[in-house]
Design brief:
Length: about 200
């Protein structure tokens, strides 16, 4: 892992809700993440950048421009078919797990964690985790409220200086605290190792 970026962690937020897909409360999720980081003990360590209506080309541009340590995707997922980005006219452009894994792999020395807050995104998380230390995906559909609560718990915990795996556990707990029965939906993948309850090989 590259520790040169230990002073400031850049979080790149990619939000996409293409025309013709069901509306998501992306603004609320983005606001929750921003608020949690701003109120956190280590708020000066985080730099949040938000990009809306993201096309595939925008991922590459943002990665090169901002060199983030964390990438957070909020939007729609279609399982094996891919994650839903926008094409040049604003409708759905599906991007496959392999394509995402390949692109993010070029930035593996700087990227520490990727959060795919989208339905059925476990397949993408698994592929990307071959290159990136921590990747979080959803093993089934996830509702807006569960996605927002998970994001809040996750980034609030990171902002307190905790680890990615502990932040993941708190994010799942946050869903449960609000009585939403989806706390087992998020899964965390460690580089080439899949773990849910037991943490193995963390160094």
């Amino acid at each position: 892992m590259n520790h040169n970026h230990s002073l400031v962690t850049t979080v790149l937020l990619l939000a996409v809700n293409p025309k013709g897909t069901s509306p998501l409360r992306l603004d609320e999720e983005m606001r929750q993440i921003e608020e949690e980081l701003k109120l956190s003990r280590q708020r000066d360590r985080f730099h949040l950048i938000s990009k809306m209506a993201v096309r595939p080309v925008d991922i590459r541009r943002a990665m090169l421009d901002y060199r983030p340590q964390i990438v957070h995707f909020c939007g729609h997922g279609a399982g094996e078919e891919g994650l839903a980005f926008e094409n040049d006219i604003g409708t759905v452009q599906l991007v496959s797990a392999e394509a995402l894994a390949h692109l993010f792999g070029f930035f593996a020395t700087q990227l520490d964690c990727i959060v795919l807050n989208a339905c059925y995104s476990e397949v993408q998380a698994h592929a990307i985790s071959q290159h990136i230390n921590y990747v979080i995906g959803m093993k089934q559909a996830i509702g807006d409220q569960a996605a927002i609560k998970f994001a809040g718990g996750f980034y609030g915990t990171l902002g307190a200086g905790e680890s990615f795996e502990f932040a993941y556990q708190i994010g799942c707990s946050e869903i449960q605290l609000y009585g939403i029965p989806e706390h087992l939906t998020p899964v965390i993948k460690k580089k080439s190792v899949n773990f849910r309850q037991t943490v193995v090989g963390i160094d």
